[in-house]
Design goal:
The structure holds two protein chains of two kinds.
Chain A (H helix, E strand, L loop, with lengths): L5 E12 L3 E13 L4 E5 L6 H9 L6 E12 L8 E4 L5 H7 L4 E4 L13 H13 L3 H14 L5 H6 L7 H13 L5 E5 L7 H18 L2 E6 L2 H7 L2 E6 L2 E7 H6 L4 H9 L8 H4 L4 E13 L11 E13 L3 E5 L6 H8 L7 E6 L2 E2 L5 H10 E4 L13 H6 L10 H14 L16 H13 L5 E5 L7 H18 L2 E6 L2 H7 L2 E6 L2 E7 H6 L4 H8 L3 E4 L5 E4 L21 E7 L2 E6 L2
Parallel strand pairs in A: 3-8, 3-9, 6-7, 7-8, 13-18, 13-19, 16-17, 17-18
Antiparallel strand pairs in A: 1-2, 1-4, 4-5, 9-10, 11-12, 11-14, 14-15, 19-20, 20-24, 21-22, 23-24
Helix pairs in contact in A: 3-4, 3-6, 4-6, 6-7, 15-16
Chain B lengths: L7 H22 L32 H37 L1 H15 L3 H12 L3 H28 L2 H8 L4 H9 L4 H24 L11 H7 L9 H28 L7
The chains are: A alpha/beta, B mainly alpha.
Chain lengths: 593, 273
């Protein structure tokens, strides 16, 4: 049995807090990573998983310090005659610099900011090679190009000369991977490497990472909150909570047959398909009818005398939202799903098409009609940290939702706001607090309270749970369902998360590059998806579902990925698509014959 | 207000400002000597029991001139800051919030103005307005307006993107309401910081204008004027430079301390610190 690549023993990290001394964020954590293995640190925010990852390279924020423990790293590269073990927790800065980048590589969450925008990709890749391996420029260049090819960059030589901003998030994360793995490190620390990416791209990046590290023999420390992804890619799992190890072991044993209560609670919080309320949506009258709506944005011209170029965010989309139902719009970023929602609440204006609300065309509304309409439609935003005015108390924030309702005194507005806050689970003196005193989930509750305080008919929810931990996510989804039952709202639920959508939606619309590709009831779309894009989307989203007994199962939709049969329309530029109804209520975009 | 008094910054800054304010008012009500009366027998006298802070080259009492000048200098700075901040905020907010061709034209003009050092601008305008208190205020506030507008526009641009601003629109609030209720209050911090800095710049700029003979016309006293008059006598009579210099510094210190405390006070996130 070989020695482990990394052995962490009793690691304790504390963070200094204002006037309160030190608080332990990592508490007596021990685990090992064997050569070639992938170990995942899993936990909710505040579990200390990122701190552990950063401790290994001693890249902790200035307020944090390692209080105790050993981080034994098997450094096979430094001493040619044999492996040398270093304690990274105590190693001097000078020897850490030999380890960082060369023996241990790190990939961060934000691909947009982890590459230097001012330097070419090639320069950044060669920098480390030349620094640590003293390679001549030609040799370094050769290796960098090779690695770019292996992360499936189509034009490695072009990429070598290009700047990071010329690439999308997924491509940048591949480039990042290439530039880290070109050093052939013994260990790769990947901190939420694909969290900022769309499902399909997420899978591509993870597949590349898994294949490459296997080939090179690099061990991986994967830091993630995504249980489905961890279950698909990790050999071992270390489950963390409040900085302590809850449970650790083989992935299959921990995630699919959990023993610890906390792990089970997390798994139970994962979105799951509930029984669909057939009666709810069957033949309710329609509330919103969107007919052939397109939305165009003007790109900013380079010089002010130039004409602005137009970009189509939504391309002739048609959909119907019935009263009291939840219609989910799914798709990756840039698919136009958010734009549809924003057009409905009149934050953007369509360039063509009509939108009927309760039978009246809202595109022709004047000021007064619009004011009345705004009382009937509301929106819940994605980012709980930016959707509430930091200067106002919760009661004032929610009461503002009643401002345009005529005939209400200030006192009455305040009273209703407080009642609504209690309704969403923030009773009593919460009303006098400010947003910064709340957690993300609580803020999202305030955002919901503000949206529904004037009892609208339609609620547009734009990724309302994407920024939340799974346990909180579950609570908010439950709240959405309960409020719908009580007040009869219709939801337009915009999300990239197929799991969440599966739990909450009655009907699902799949969008891609501004077009609606498939639309049907939840069961139709999830069980009998027809459009190849829907198949790809489902195949890229691993889910953990409960089996009959006590255990869990990892499910990946095994659609015919990649094998796109001809006849399905993808996006604009390939001719006008035709929407064909293939089953009652199940519509798919086909290319015009 | 009570909470403000718990901040040491606010107390220290407030006391300094209060002293200066009392001096400014006192200087217009009573001074030991006539601040403009020459006494050529008592030129450049060092501080003594008769003249606490000495006399200047015309034999005028420095303490009297200081007290009278306090009102002149501080009112010039105060009104300059008020005028520049109010107009700059409105202009910056309007350009930042509404965008479009209005923004492009307004910003092009402001950028052009910003290309001139503000003192040069003020100089140019003084030749139009002529040397007077109002002239100084008008020239300085016009000179500072572009920088205020720039700063405000920058922070409006970032606040405008916040989701609570969109939420306000979705709730049916009018644009001006959204502007004054959600956008501007969240830009207060940089505006306060800039306003305190401007106050200092205005005090110094007033002295620079006086130095060039374009400030408050003599023989009326102002701190800047006193400072510039002292330049020929720094070796013989250092108190002539020290007295207005220290007064300007202390006032600036008071303004800065108080401004910082105000900024923290307006930010609910800092409430319990």
């Amino acid at each position: 049995m070989t020695a482990p690549t990394l052995a962490i023993e009793g690691l304790t990290v504390a963070v200094r807090e204002a006037d309160r001394g030190f608080r332990r964020v990592v508490d007596d954590v021990s685990f090992t990573i064997d050569p070639g293995q992938t170990v995942a640190l899993v936990g909710e925010s505040g579990s200390g998983k990122t701190m552990i990852g950063r401790s290994v390279l001693r890249l902790l924020p200035p307020v944090a310090r390692i209080e105790a423990g050993r981080i034994a790293f098997q450094d096979a590269g430094v001493a040619p005659h044999g492996a040398r073990v270093q304690d990274l927790a105590r190693a001097p800065e000078s020897s850490l610099r030999l380890v960082r980048g060369r023996a241990i590589g790190m990939v961060f969450q934000e691909p947009m900011v982890s590459l230097n925008p001012a330097l070419t990709v090639g320069f950044q890749m060669m920098e480390a090679l030349r620094l640590h391996h003293q390679l001549p420029a030609g040799e370094a260049r050769k290796r960098a190009l090779e690695m770019l090819e292996r992360v499936k960059i189509t034009d490695p030589a072009g990429c070598f000369r290009a700047y990071p901003h010329q690439y999308s998030g997924g491509m940048r994360q591949r480039i990042m991977l290439a530039s880290v793995l070109v050093m052939r490190p013994a260990l790769l620390i990947a901190d939420e490497p694909t969290t900022a990416l769309d499902a399909v791209i997420q899978k591509e990046v993870m597949d590349i990472m898994a294949a490459l590290t296997r080939d090179i023999g690099t061990s991986v420390l994967l830091v993630s909150h995504d249980l489905g992804m961890v279950a698909s890619y990790a050999d071992q799992v270390v489950m963390l909570r409040y900085g302590k190890v809850v449970e650790a072991g083989k992935t299959a044993e921990i995630l699919l047959a959990p023993k610890h209560e906390y792990t089970r609670m997390l798994l139970e919080s994962l979105p799951a398909r509930g029984a669909r309320n057939e009666a709810k949506a069957a033949d309710a009258p329609s509330l919103v009818e969107i007919d052939e709506v397109s939305v165009e944005f003007k790109k900013k011209p380079r010089f002010f005398w130039q004409r602005a170029e137009a970009f189509r965010a939504v391309d002739k989309a048609s959909l119907t939202l019935k009263q009291g139902e939840t219609l989910a719009v799914v798709g990756e970023s840039g698919s136009g799903k958010t734009t549809i929602g924003r057009t409905l609440v009149r934050l953007t204006t369509e360039s063509e098409g009509s939108i009927r609300f309760e039978g009246r065309d809202i595109t022709a509304f004047d000021r007064r009609d619009l004011a009345a309409y705004r009382l009937k439609t509301q929106m819940v935003f994605q980012d709980p940290f930016s959707s509430l005015d930091p200067r106002m108390t919760l009661a004032d924030i929610v009461a503002e939702g009643l401002r345009t309702l005529p005939g209400l005194s200030r006192l009455e507005r305040d009273r209703r706001a407080r009642a609504m806050l209690a309704e969403v689970g923030l009773p009593g003196d919460y009303a006098d607090r400010h947003p910064h005193e709340l957690s993300g989930g609580q803020r999202q509750r305030v955002s919901i309270a503000r949206a529904i305080v004037a009892t609208p008919r339609l609620l547009v929810a734009d990724e309302p749970v994407s920024a939340l931990d799974v346990t909180v996510q579950k609570q908010i989804l439950t709240l959405f369902t309960a409020l719908q039952k009580k007040f009869g709202f219709s939801y337009l639920f915009i999300s990239h998360d197929l799991g969440v959508v599966e739990q909450i939606a009655d009907r699902v619309v799949v969008m891609y590059r501004g077009r609606i590709l498939e639309c049907g009831t939840r069961d139709q779309v999830y069980d009998t998806p027809r459009h190849p894009y829907t198949l790809r989307l489902l195949a890229a989203t691993p889910r953990i579902v409960r089996t009959e007994g006590q255990g869990y199962r990892l499910v990946r939709h095994s659609g015919a990925e990649g094998a796109a049969p001809s006849g399905f329309a993808y996006y604009a530029g390939r001719g006008e698509p035709v929407m064909r109804e293939i089953a009652p209520g199940h519509v798919v975009a086909l290319e015009a014959a | 207000m009570k909470a403000l008094l718990r901040r040491p910054n606010a107390i220290a800054g407030g006391v300094l400002l209060l002293v200066m304010l009392v001096a400014a008012i006192a200087g217009h009500v009573y001074t030991p000597y006539d601040p403009v009366a020459n006494d050529l027998m008592a030129r450049l006298k060092a501080p003594s029991a008769a003249h606490w802070l000495g006399t200047d080259e015309w034999g005028r009492d420095v303490l009297s001139r200081l007290l009278f000048g306090a009102g002149v200098s501080m009112s010039i700075s105060l009104f300059t800051v008020l005028a520049a901040v109010t107009s700059g905020t409105l202009l910056g907010a309007a350009t930042g919030y509404f965008g479009g061709w209005f923004e492009r034209v307004a910003m092009a003009i402001l950028d052009a103005l910003l290309a001139f050092p503000s003192l040069i601008m003020a100089l140019g305008m003084m030749t139009v307005f002529g040397p007077s208190r109002i002239g100084v205020i008008a020239a300085l506030s016009l000179a500072y307006l572009p920088s205020v507008a720039r700063v405000v526009r920058g922070s409006v641009l970032s606040v405008r993107e916040k989701e609570y601003v969109e939420a306000s629109r979705v709730m049916g609030n009018s644009e001006p309401f959204t502007m004054f209720r959600h956008v501007l209050p969240n830009c207060v911090a940089p505006i306060t910081v800039l306003a305190t800095a401007l106050f200092g710049w205005a005090l110094l700029a007033e002295s620079a204008l006086s130095f060039l003979g374009l400030g408050v016309p003599p023989p009326a006293s102002s701190w800047g004027g006193m400072l510039s008059d002292s330049r020929n006598y720094v070796g013989q009579a250092p108190w002539l430079a020290l007295v207005p210099g220290i007064s300007i510094s202390v006032t600036l210190l008071g303004i800065n301390l108080f401004g910082d405390a105000l900024r923290d006070q307006f930010d609910p996130r800092m409430k319990n610190l």
